[in-house]
Amino acid sequence: TNPSGPDTFGRPVGLLVLKDGSLLFSEDGNNRLYRVQYKKRR
C-alpha cells in the first residue's frame, strides 16, 4: 500500500446497467466512476 494514498480501496457502492449492456459503478473510497463493457467476437 501507499502510505500517502487513500485508506480505502475498492468499495463499490452503486451499480447501473446501461442500454448498451455496459456496467457503470461508483467507488466512493477514491471518488471514481467506472464503466465496464465488452466487445463481441466476430
Layout: helices, strands, pairs:
Layout: E1 12-17, E2 23-27, E3 32-36
Antiparallel strand pairs: 1-2, 2-3
Describe the structure.
The chain has one domain (1-35). It is 0% helix and 38% strand. The protein has strands at residues 12-17, 23-27, 32-36. A hairpin with a 4-residue loop joins strand 2 and strand 3 (32-36). The protein starts with 11 loop residues before the first strand and ends in a 6-residue tail after the last strand. The mean pLDDT is 82. This is L-sorbosone dehydrogenase.
> What is the helical fraction, as a range of percent?
under 10%
Number of helices: 0
How many domains would you count in the coordinates? 1
Structural class: mainly beta
The largest sheet has its strands arranged as 1-2-3
SSE ordering: EEE
**Which runs of at least 5 residues are low in confidence (pLDDT < 50)?**
none
For the biggest sheet, the summary is: 3 strands, antiparallel
> Distance between the terminal alpha carbons, to the nearest Å?
40 Å
Count of distinct strands: 3
* Relative strand content: 35-45%
- Rg, rounded, reads 14 Å
Mean pLDDT: 82
Shape: elongated
Protein name: L-sorbosone dehydrogenase
Short description:
This protein is mainly beta.
Key attributes of the depicted protein:
42 residues, mainly beta, three-stranded antiparallel beta sheet, L-sorbosone dehydrogenase
